[in-house]
Fold:
Amino acid sequence: MPRIAVLCGTGMSEFATALSSNGVSLSDCMIAESPWGEVPLSMVKMERGEVVIIDRHYSNSNSRTPPHSINHRANVHAAISSHPDMVVSVNSVGSIRSDLKPGMVTVAGDVLDLSIRPWTFHDDNAIHADRTSIFSKEASNTCSKAISTVQDTSPKGIVVAQCVGPQFESPAEIDALERLGADVVGMTLGPESRLISEKMLPYVCLPCCSNWAAGRTPGDPAAEISHHEVDAIASGMRNVVALCITSLLDELQ
Structure:
């Protein structure tokens, strides 16, 4: 039976419920142990396969772990330890392009990560993982086809810029990222993509446009970004993401 590990965050805290129309049964929360700490995960069992869900922002308190404090090594280790056939990152992003409107699910094609903090599983030995083709072309095409059945457009090949947060970016930073080739900007994909590249598993990313990037709101470049609004818009894309996951499971049969 195929299995997919999903790393998700903003707006996806109830992601398992989005799979309910597919006749699923949600198991009790389990704990995955790693050298970097424990990670809670949920297993969703379906007729077509299994989905392991990891909330990258989980916390032992009532608060949510901010993006700059996420234990990415623990999260990715937990995902890999579930022995998936594929890993999927679902990332809330700000749109830089005018045609990528908030509420749209897209498919990533590359990552622009120039942040200075290194992320690796190999602190004591130089392991140089290849990142020429970060995401699976076949899996990305499957997701794009699924998205096209429920969205007017299904943008793929999206370049996701990595910023560390927790603050949103400034308009000048967005302008610079656009000139470097970015289509959207987020705070979590860079570390995950680096770590997963060291494990050489099939990988796909679904950037979910949850807001306009700073200075890019049509007609109101001075519009502020509200995280509450971002979370609400992101949560509205759960069903589209669920459709991508079930389509991937069908392809893995």
Observations:
- The radius of gyration is 17 Å.
- Residues 69 and 150 are 35 Å apart (CA to CA).
